[in-house]
Amino acid sequence: MRSICLTNNKGGVGKTTTAVSLAHGLVMLLRHNDLPCRVLLIDTDSQAHATLLTTGRRDWSRAESLGEVLVARPERAGAVLQQLIVPSTWDEDLHVVPGSPTLDGVNTRLAEDHGFAVRLRHALRSVADRYDWVVIDTMPSFSRLTTLAMVAATDIVIPVELRFLETIGLQAIVEKIKEVQQTWEIPVRLTGILPVKYDQRITLERENLALYGDHAFYGPRLFATPIPTNVAISYAHDACESIFMYDDQSSAARAYMIFVRELVERVMNPAGA
Fold first, then answer.
1. 88: domain CATH number?
2. Is residue 36 packed enough to be buried (19+ CB in 10 Å), middle (13-18) or exposed (0-12)?
3. Burial of 249 per CB tally in 10 Å (0-12, 13-18, 19+)
4. Could you tell me the residue range of the domain that residue 109 belongs to?
5. What pLDDT shows up at residue 62?
6. What pLDDT is attached to residue 271?
7. Structural domain total, the chain
C-alpha cells in the first residue's frame, strides 16, 4: 500500500483540489489498466473541504471522523479507523475517512502525547490489505496533524504556485519534511513538486517555472506538466464533482491525469524519480 501526503503550509494553493483529483484519478487510471484500484482518501484538515467535495457533507462529528481514530487507545485505533470509512459519491472504489471542524481540538489534545506522530501510520496497518493507495490531505500549516500525515505517508507531494512568496516558502516545507524524516526515522520521501494554478500568460510564472526546472534540488522533483488555472475546477467544486466528472476534456482534467500517471511511475520506479 502506497500513501501519498499532499502538503503546503500556505492556504489557497490548490492542495485539496490536488488531493481529491489525485484520489479519483488513481481509481480511474488503475482501473483502466486492469490494476487493483481501491483508494482511501484521508482528510486531516479541520476545514474538511476534501470531505465535503467527495461525500457532499462536512458536518461529521468527532465520533464519525478522523479525530476519533487519533484519540483512540493505540491498540483500538485500527479498528476505529475501519468503522469510520465511508463511501465517496464519486466512485465505488474511492472511500473516505472524513475530516471535521473537531480536528482543531484534537490537534491541541495531541500535544499531550509524545508519540502522537505515529498514530495514523500505525492505524493504517489495519486497512493495508483493503486499499492499494492512500491519499492524505492536510492542513495549510505545520500542525501536529500535518506531522502525523507526513509520518503516515510513503511519499510526499508539494503543490505550489509559481509566485514570489510561494517560492520563498517552498524551502521551509522541504526543511519540515527533512525534520520529520530525521525525528521519526521514517523513509518517507519528497516524490515531487507540482506547479498549480499556472498561467503561462504571466511572465513571472514562466520565469519561476524555468528557475525551478534548472534548480539542482527542485528540478529533478518537478512534475513535467503544471496544472493550469481553469474555471472548470471552480464549477466542479460547486457541483461537488471531481474535475474528471465535470469536464474530462478541460485543460485542468488533462493536466491532472498526466500528473497522476507521472506520480504512479515515480512511486513504482523510485530510482527514476
1. 3.40.50.300
2. exposed
3. exposed
4. 2-189
5. 82
6. 67
7. 1
Q: What value, to the nearest 5°, has the Cα angle with vertex 84 and ends 79 and 87?
A: 130
Amino acid type, 185:
E
32: which 3 cell numbers?
483502466
Q: Please report the pLDDT score of residue 151 as a whole number.
A: 97
Residue 258 lies in a domain: no
User: Would you say 16 and 137 are in contact if contact means Cβ atoms under 8 Å apart?
Assistant: yes
Which residue in 206, 107, 151, 150 sits closest to 8, CA to CA? 150
Distances (CA, A) of 255 to 128, 227, 251: 29, 6, 6
- Asked if residue 72 lies in contact with residue 63, where contact means CB atoms within 8 angstroms, the answer is no
How far is it, in rounded angstroms, from Cα 163 to Cα 272? 28
Amino acid residing at 43: D
Question: Which parts of the chain sit beneath pLDDT 50?
Answer: 272-273
- Cell 502525547: give the residue: 113
> Does 227 reside within a domain?
no
134 lies in a domain?
yes
**Residues found in the chain:** 273
**Residue in 196, 151, 207 with CA at minimum distance from that of residue 176:** 151
* pLDDT per position as a tens digit, 66-80: 999 999 999 999 999
